[in-house]
Amino acid sequence: MSYSMTLPLDDGFLRRECPSCERQFKWHHGPTDNRPEDAIEPDVYWCPYCGETAPPDQWWTVDQLEFAKASIAGPVMRDVADEFNKSMGRQRNSLIKVSMTHDDPEAPSAIHEPPDMVAVQSPCHPWEPIKVAEDWSESVHCLVCGNRFAMG
Asked: How high is the pLDDT of residue 43?
């Protein structure tokens, strides 16, 4: 079984959080139109602030993780109850009938994504732009290869 959810974007940018330094930034959700045809998806991404790496599935913010848990709770409960009831329905000669019911949890409030941060492009991978905190004045690391570059 698979479950999906939709996260809000800021003009195509998805909020991310570094698993090392815990600073938030945004990366473009999907490369921009100027991506070369031979570009490959990296196995890890670099934090623009601290330069540490992590696999693509490690950059969730706390709010995104809480939203994900709350979003899938209802569908998971329904699926578990359905599977349990199917398995219990196979016991035809039993004197005891067992079934499972559940209450749907309240749907989570939508996450709001403000149009904040400053967009920057790395000179080495311009098709993977990022947004960093407005008060960040130091150089940043390229999301794709980790090379440092000045924002200005």
From this structure: 96
Out of 26-30, 36-40, 115-119, 139-143, least confident range: 36-40
Distance CA 150, CA 152 (A): 6
Residue owning tokens 């540490």: 52
* Residue 118 one-letter amino acid: V
**Cβ neighbours around 72 below 10 Å, total:** 18
Task: Output the six-digit token pair for 132.
Answer: 């960093």
Residue 99 near residue 86, CB atoms below 8 Å:
no
What's the pLDDT tens digit per position in 45-83? 999 999 999 999 999 999 999 998 888 766 556 655 556
Distance CA 146, CA 122 (A): 10
Can you point out the beta strands (E) in 13-149?
A: 13-17, 24-28, 45-46, 53-54, 118-120, 130-132, 140-141, 148-149
Q: Spell out where the chain has E strands.
A: 13-17, 24-28, 45-46, 53-54, 118-120, 130-132, 140-141, 148-149
Is residue 36 classed exposed, middle or buried when 0-12, 13-18 and 19+ CB atoms within 10 A define those classes? exposed
